[in-house]
Amino acid sequence: MSASNAVPGCTGVDHVPRGQAVDAPGFDISHALPQQGLEFVVLMYHRVAKSEMPDFLPSALNCPASRFREHLAVFKRHCSVLPLEEAWNLVRGGRRLPPRTVVLTFDDCWYDNVETVVHLLADAAIPATFFVSAGDIDREELHPNYRFYYLVSRADREQLTRDLLSMLPSSSMVPPAQAIRLRRWLESALGYELASESGRVFLDTLEQGLGVPSSGSLGKTLNMTSDQVRSLPTYGIQVGNHTVNHRQLTALDEAGQRVELAEAQRILSALTGKPVTTLAYPYGVFNDISVKVAAELGHRCACTVIQGSNDGDTDPMRLRRIDVSRLSGQELAIRLLGAAP
Ligand SMILES: [Zn+2]
To answer: Who has greater pLDDT, 253 or 175?
Structure first.
Protein backbone atom coordinates (compact mmCIF):
# COMPACT_ATOMS: atom_id res chain seq x y z
CA MET A 1 0.00 0.00 0.00
CA SER A 2 1.38 3.38 -0.85
CA ALA A 3 0.49 6.99 -0.29
CA SER A 4 -2.41 8.35 -2.25
CA ASN A 5 -1.27 10.40 -5.21
CA ALA A 6 -4.56 12.17 -5.60
CA VAL A 7 -5.05 13.68 -2.17
CA PRO A 8 -1.77 14.49 -0.51
CA GLY A 9 -3.29 16.62 2.23
CA CYS A 10 -5.36 15.29 5.05
CA THR A 11 -9.03 15.94 5.25
CA GLY A 12 -9.31 19.57 6.13
CA VAL A 13 -6.96 19.83 9.11
CA ASP A 14 -4.76 22.85 9.55
CA HIS A 15 -1.72 20.97 8.38
CA VAL A 16 -2.23 21.08 4.66
CA PRO A 17 0.44 22.68 2.55
CA ARG A 18 -0.72 25.59 0.47
CA GLY A 19 -1.78 24.70 -3.00
CA GLN A 20 -2.52 21.09 -2.19
CA ALA A 21 -5.93 19.53 -2.38
CA VAL A 22 -7.82 19.64 0.88
CA ASP A 23 -11.17 18.11 0.06
CA ALA A 24 -11.97 14.95 1.89
CA PRO A 25 -11.82 12.01 -0.46
CA GLY A 26 -15.07 10.69 0.95
CA PHE A 27 -15.13 7.56 2.95
CA ASP A 28 -11.88 5.94 2.10
CA ILE A 29 -10.87 2.46 3.11
CA SER A 30 -7.78 2.41 0.95
CA HIS A 31 -5.61 2.61 4.02
CA ALA A 32 -7.05 -0.48 5.65
CA LEU A 33 -4.28 -2.36 7.33
CA PRO A 34 -3.49 -5.86 6.15
CA GLN A 35 -2.74 -8.57 8.63
CA GLN A 36 0.73 -9.45 7.43
CA GLY A 37 2.50 -6.71 9.38
CA LEU A 38 4.75 -5.11 6.77
CA GLU A 39 3.39 -1.60 7.21
CA PHE A 40 1.91 0.68 9.81
CA VAL A 41 -0.26 3.77 9.89
CA VAL A 42 0.31 6.87 11.96
CA LEU A 43 -2.93 8.43 13.18
CA MET A 44 -3.12 12.16 13.78
CA TYR A 45 -5.13 14.01 16.40
CA HIS A 46 -5.07 17.57 17.66
CA ARG A 47 -7.24 18.48 20.63
CA VAL A 48 -9.21 15.83 22.47
CA ALA A 49 -11.60 18.07 24.36
CA LYS A 50 -13.11 17.31 27.71
CA SER A 51 -16.27 19.14 26.79
CA GLU A 52 -18.75 17.63 24.36
CA MET A 53 -19.97 21.11 23.52
CA PRO A 54 -18.91 22.58 20.20
CA ASP A 55 -16.49 25.42 20.75
CA PHE A 56 -14.40 27.69 18.56
CA LEU A 57 -12.30 24.97 16.99
CA PRO A 58 -13.03 23.55 13.55
CA SER A 59 -14.21 19.97 13.94
CA ALA A 60 -11.15 18.61 12.15
CA LEU A 61 -9.02 19.86 15.03
CA ASN A 62 -11.17 18.62 17.87
CA CYS A 63 -12.02 15.04 18.77
CA PRO A 64 -14.33 15.00 21.82
CA ALA A 65 -13.24 12.64 24.58
CA SER A 66 -16.29 10.42 24.07
CA ARG A 67 -15.27 9.84 20.45
CA PHE A 68 -11.70 9.17 21.45
CA ARG A 69 -12.94 6.51 23.87
CA GLU A 70 -14.68 4.83 20.92
CA HIS A 71 -11.36 4.94 19.04
CA LEU A 72 -9.58 3.47 22.03
CA ALA A 73 -11.97 0.53 22.05
CA VAL A 74 -11.05 -0.11 18.41
CA PHE A 75 -7.33 0.02 19.18
CA LYS A 76 -7.69 -2.35 22.12
CA ARG A 77 -9.75 -4.84 20.21
CA HIS A 78 -8.26 -4.80 16.72
CA CYS A 79 -4.86 -3.09 16.64
CA SER A 80 -1.37 -3.17 18.01
CA VAL A 81 -0.23 0.27 19.10
CA LEU A 82 3.51 0.90 19.02
CA PRO A 83 5.69 3.93 19.72
CA LEU A 84 6.62 5.73 16.50
CA GLU A 85 10.31 4.89 16.40
CA GLU A 86 9.73 1.29 17.38
CA ALA A 87 7.29 0.79 14.52
CA TRP A 88 9.71 2.41 12.10
CA ASN A 89 12.69 0.40 13.37
CA LEU A 90 10.79 -2.84 12.90
CA VAL A 91 9.76 -2.19 9.29
CA ARG A 92 13.15 -0.73 8.44
CA GLY A 93 14.80 -3.89 9.66
CA GLY A 94 12.47 -6.00 7.56
CA ARG A 95 10.91 -7.55 10.62
CA ARG A 96 7.23 -8.22 10.88
CA LEU A 97 5.08 -5.84 12.81
CA PRO A 98 2.32 -7.07 15.05
CA PRO A 99 -0.97 -7.33 13.12
CA ARG A 100 -2.55 -3.97 12.28
CA THR A 101 0.06 -1.76 13.84
CA VAL A 102 -0.94 1.84 14.44
CA VAL A 103 0.95 4.75 15.97
CA LEU A 104 -0.91 7.52 17.80
CA THR A 105 0.18 11.16 17.51
CA PHE A 106 -1.27 14.34 19.02
CA ASP A 107 -0.18 17.73 17.67
CA ASP A 108 0.17 21.17 19.26
CA CYS A 109 -0.07 21.99 22.96
CA TRP A 110 -3.53 21.14 24.26
CA TYR A 111 -4.10 21.15 28.01
CA ASP A 112 -7.20 18.99 27.59
CA ASN A 113 -5.22 16.15 26.09
CA VAL A 114 -3.33 15.57 29.30
CA GLU A 115 -6.61 14.94 31.09
CA THR A 116 -8.55 13.21 28.34
CA VAL A 117 -5.90 11.14 26.61
CA VAL A 118 -2.92 10.54 28.86
CA HIS A 119 -4.67 8.64 31.63
CA LEU A 120 -6.82 6.61 29.26
CA LEU A 121 -3.74 5.53 27.34
CA ALA A 122 -1.71 4.88 30.47
CA ASP A 123 -4.48 2.70 31.92
CA ALA A 124 -4.48 0.66 28.71
CA ALA A 125 -0.65 0.64 28.50
CA ILE A 126 -0.91 2.24 25.05
CA PRO A 127 1.99 4.47 23.92
CA ALA A 128 1.68 7.71 21.97
CA THR A 129 3.67 10.70 20.78
CA PHE A 130 2.74 14.29 21.63
CA PHE A 131 4.24 16.70 19.11
CA VAL A 132 4.40 19.82 21.25
CA SER A 133 4.74 23.37 19.91
CA ALA A 134 7.19 24.43 22.60
CA GLY A 135 6.44 28.16 22.44
CA ASP A 136 2.85 27.51 23.54
CA ILE A 137 3.79 25.82 26.81
CA ASP A 138 2.61 28.00 29.74
CA ARG A 139 1.60 30.66 27.23
CA GLU A 140 -1.33 32.86 28.29
CA GLU A 141 -2.40 33.66 24.75
CA LEU A 142 -3.68 31.19 22.24
CA HIS A 143 -1.46 30.50 19.27
CA PRO A 144 -2.41 33.06 16.56
CA ASN A 145 -4.02 30.38 14.40
CA TYR A 146 -6.28 29.32 17.24
CA ARG A 147 -6.90 32.94 18.17
CA PHE A 148 -8.12 33.44 14.60
CA TYR A 149 -10.53 30.49 14.88
CA TYR A 150 -11.81 31.92 18.16
CA LEU A 151 -12.38 35.29 16.53
CA VAL A 152 -14.17 33.74 13.56
CA SER A 153 -16.44 31.76 15.85
CA ARG A 154 -17.48 34.90 17.74
CA ALA A 155 -17.80 37.32 14.82
CA ASP A 156 -20.82 38.17 12.75
CA ARG A 157 -20.02 36.47 9.47
CA GLU A 158 -21.08 39.27 7.17
CA GLN A 159 -19.17 41.85 9.14
CA LEU A 160 -16.13 39.59 9.23
CA THR A 161 -16.23 39.25 5.44
CA ARG A 162 -16.61 43.01 4.99
CA ASP A 163 -13.79 43.78 7.41
CA LEU A 164 -11.44 41.22 5.89
CA LEU A 165 -12.01 42.49 2.39
CA SER A 166 -11.49 46.08 3.50
CA MET A 167 -8.21 45.19 5.23
CA LEU A 168 -6.69 43.20 2.41
CA PRO A 169 -4.41 44.86 -0.11
CA SER A 170 -6.49 43.61 -3.01
CA SER A 171 -8.95 40.81 -3.28
CA SER A 172 -12.11 40.36 -5.25
CA MET A 173 -12.55 36.78 -4.09
CA VAL A 174 -15.28 35.84 -1.65
CA PRO A 175 -13.66 34.42 1.48
CA PRO A 176 -14.35 30.74 2.07
CA ALA A 177 -16.77 29.90 4.86
CA GLN A 178 -14.89 27.10 6.53
CA ALA A 179 -12.50 28.45 9.17
CA ILE A 180 -9.38 26.52 8.20
CA ARG A 181 -9.74 27.38 4.54
CA LEU A 182 -10.52 30.95 5.49
CA ARG A 183 -7.23 31.18 7.39
CA ARG A 184 -5.27 29.78 4.45
CA TRP A 185 -7.06 32.08 2.00
CA LEU A 186 -6.36 35.06 4.24
CA GLU A 187 -2.67 34.22 4.64
CA SER A 188 -2.36 33.78 0.93
CA ALA A 189 -3.97 37.19 0.31
CA LEU A 190 -1.85 38.87 2.98
CA GLY A 191 1.37 37.20 1.92
CA TYR A 192 2.34 36.31 5.47
CA GLU A 193 1.31 33.91 8.21
CA LEU A 194 -0.90 34.86 11.13
CA ALA A 195 1.82 33.39 13.34
CA SER A 196 4.28 36.02 12.12
CA GLU A 197 4.72 39.41 13.77
CA SER A 198 2.74 41.09 10.98
CA GLY A 199 0.01 38.53 11.54
CA ARG A 200 -0.30 39.48 15.19
CA VAL A 201 -0.78 43.14 14.29
CA PHE A 202 -3.38 42.16 11.71
CA LEU A 203 -5.28 40.05 14.25
CA ASP A 204 -5.26 42.87 16.81
CA THR A 205 -6.68 45.28 14.25
CA LEU A 206 -9.30 42.81 13.03
CA GLU A 207 -10.38 41.96 16.56
CA GLN A 208 -10.79 45.62 17.46
CA GLY A 209 -12.72 46.35 14.29
CA LEU A 210 -15.11 43.47 14.86
CA GLY A 211 -15.65 44.39 18.48
CA VAL A 212 -15.78 40.75 19.54
CA PRO A 213 -14.63 39.55 22.96
CA SER A 214 -10.89 38.97 22.95
CA SER A 215 -9.50 35.49 23.39
CA GLY A 216 -7.30 37.26 25.96
CA SER A 217 -5.64 34.83 28.32
CA LEU A 218 -7.58 31.79 27.12
CA GLY A 219 -4.26 30.06 26.59
CA LYS A 220 -3.94 29.86 30.37
CA THR A 221 -6.60 27.17 30.46
CA LEU A 222 -6.02 25.65 27.04
CA ASN A 223 -2.23 25.40 26.66
CA MET A 224 -0.23 22.68 28.36
CA THR A 225 1.85 23.70 31.34
CA SER A 226 5.51 22.90 31.93
CA ASP A 227 4.52 20.49 34.70
CA GLN A 228 2.22 18.63 32.35
CA VAL A 229 4.88 18.29 29.66
CA ARG A 230 7.37 17.19 32.30
CA SER A 231 4.98 14.44 33.41
CA LEU A 232 4.26 12.97 29.97
CA PRO A 233 7.08 10.39 29.82
CA THR A 234 5.95 8.85 33.10
CA TYR A 235 2.70 7.91 31.35
CA GLY A 236 4.42 6.35 28.35
CA ILE A 237 4.00 9.43 26.18
CA GLN A 238 6.96 10.37 24.02
CA VAL A 239 7.37 14.10 23.50
CA GLY A 240 8.23 15.05 19.92
CA ASN A 241 9.22 18.29 18.25
CA HIS A 242 6.62 20.60 16.67
CA THR A 243 8.93 23.66 16.56
CA VAL A 244 8.72 26.69 18.84
CA ASN A 245 6.34 29.02 17.01
CA HIS A 246 4.48 26.69 14.68
CA ARG A 247 5.61 28.60 11.62
CA GLN A 248 5.64 27.19 8.12
CA LEU A 249 9.22 25.99 7.89
CA THR A 250 9.30 26.65 4.17
CA ALA A 251 8.81 30.37 4.87
CA LEU A 252 12.11 30.39 6.78
CA ASP A 253 15.69 30.16 5.56
CA GLU A 254 18.00 27.43 6.81
CA ALA A 255 19.14 29.41 9.84
CA GLY A 256 15.53 30.21 10.75
CA GLN A 257 14.46 26.60 10.42
CA ARG A 258 17.40 25.49 12.54
CA VAL A 259 16.43 27.90 15.33
CA GLU A 260 12.80 26.72 15.32
CA LEU A 261 13.79 23.06 15.48
CA ALA A 262 16.80 23.25 17.79
CA GLU A 263 15.23 25.60 20.31
CA ALA A 264 12.11 23.44 20.60
CA GLN A 265 14.33 20.39 21.05
CA ARG A 266 16.20 22.17 23.83
CA ILE A 267 13.03 23.29 25.65
CA LEU A 268 11.29 19.92 25.41
CA SER A 269 14.35 17.92 26.31
CA ALA A 270 15.02 20.13 29.34
CA LEU A 271 11.47 19.51 30.57
CA THR A 272 11.31 15.77 30.00
CA GLY A 273 14.93 14.81 30.52
CA LYS A 274 14.70 12.83 27.28
CA PRO A 275 16.24 13.40 23.86
CA VAL A 276 13.78 14.69 21.26
CA THR A 277 14.19 12.48 18.23
CA THR A 278 10.83 12.72 16.47
CA LEU A 279 9.21 15.63 14.70
CA ALA A 280 5.97 16.67 13.05
CA TYR A 281 6.39 19.48 10.52
CA PRO A 282 3.87 22.26 11.35
CA TYR A 283 1.05 22.14 8.78
CA GLY A 284 2.91 19.21 7.26
CA VAL A 285 4.93 21.80 5.36
CA PHE A 286 8.60 21.09 4.75
CA ASN A 287 11.30 21.25 2.10
CA ASP A 288 14.68 19.61 1.55
CA ILE A 289 16.30 22.08 3.95
CA SER A 290 13.85 21.08 6.71
CA VAL A 291 14.68 17.43 6.20
CA LYS A 292 18.42 18.09 6.21
CA VAL A 293 18.36 20.28 9.31
CA ALA A 294 16.02 17.96 11.19
CA ALA A 295 18.26 14.98 10.48
CA GLU A 296 21.38 16.93 11.48
CA LEU A 297 19.73 17.76 14.79
CA GLY A 298 19.20 14.08 15.52
CA HIS A 299 15.58 13.56 14.54
CA ARG A 300 15.14 9.99 13.36
CA CYS A 301 11.49 10.15 12.28
CA ALA A 302 9.48 13.09 10.97
CA CYS A 303 5.75 13.10 10.22
CA THR A 304 4.01 14.85 7.35
CA VAL A 305 0.29 15.02 6.58
CA ILE A 306 0.65 13.07 3.36
CA GLN A 307 -2.06 10.43 3.49
CA GLY A 308 -1.02 6.83 3.55
CA SER A 309 0.67 4.03 5.40
CA ASN A 310 4.38 3.44 5.92
CA ASP A 311 6.57 0.49 5.09
CA GLY A 312 10.28 -0.26 4.97
CA ASP A 313 10.70 1.83 1.82
CA THR A 314 9.16 4.98 3.28
CA ASP A 315 11.56 7.84 3.97
CA PRO A 316 11.54 8.13 7.80
CA MET A 317 11.77 11.91 7.48
CA ARG A 318 8.60 11.92 5.35
CA LEU A 319 6.29 9.57 7.21
CA ARG A 320 2.65 9.59 6.20
CA ARG A 321 -0.24 10.13 8.56
CA ILE A 322 -4.01 9.84 8.57
CA ASP A 323 -6.28 12.38 10.26
CA VAL A 324 -8.98 10.59 12.22
CA SER A 325 -10.41 13.24 14.56
CA ARG A 326 -13.78 13.39 12.84
CA LEU A 327 -14.36 9.67 12.49
CA SER A 328 -16.71 7.79 14.79
CA GLY A 329 -15.40 4.58 16.34
CA GLN A 330 -17.27 2.59 13.71
CA GLU A 331 -15.86 4.68 10.86
CA LEU A 332 -12.36 4.36 12.26
CA ALA A 333 -12.72 0.59 12.50
CA ILE A 334 -13.89 0.37 8.91
CA ARG A 335 -11.03 2.60 7.80
CA LEU A 336 -8.43 0.52 9.61
CA LEU A 337 -9.89 -2.91 9.06
CA GLY A 338 -11.39 -2.41 5.62
CA ALA A 339 -14.75 -3.67 6.82
CA ALA A 340 -17.11 -3.25 9.71
CA PRO A 341 -15.84 -5.15 12.72
ZN1 LIG B 1 0.34 21.72 14.51
So the answer is: 253
Q: How far is the CA of 108 from the centre of ligand 1 (A)?
A: 5
CA of 191 to the centre of ligand 1 (A): 20
Indicate the average pLDDT of the chain.
87
CA 131 / ligand 1 centre spacing (Å)? 8
Ligand 1 centroid distance, CA of 283 (Å): 6
Q: Which residue has the higher pLDDT, 177 or 72?
A: 72
Pick from 1-5, 234-238, 283-287: least confident: 1-5
- CA end-to-end distance (rounded Å), the chain: 21
- pLDDT for res 22: 29
Give me ligand 1 centre to Cα 96, in Å.
Answer: 31
Instruction: Give the whole-angstrom CA distance, residue 80 versus residue 189.
Output: 44
In sequence order, which residues have a C-beta less than 8 Å from that of residue 94 and are 6 or more positions away? 312
Domains and CATH numbers, the chain: 39-139+226-337 (3.20.20.370), 144-210 (no CATH)
In angstroms, what is the span from residue 161 Cα to ligand 1's centroid? Answer: 26
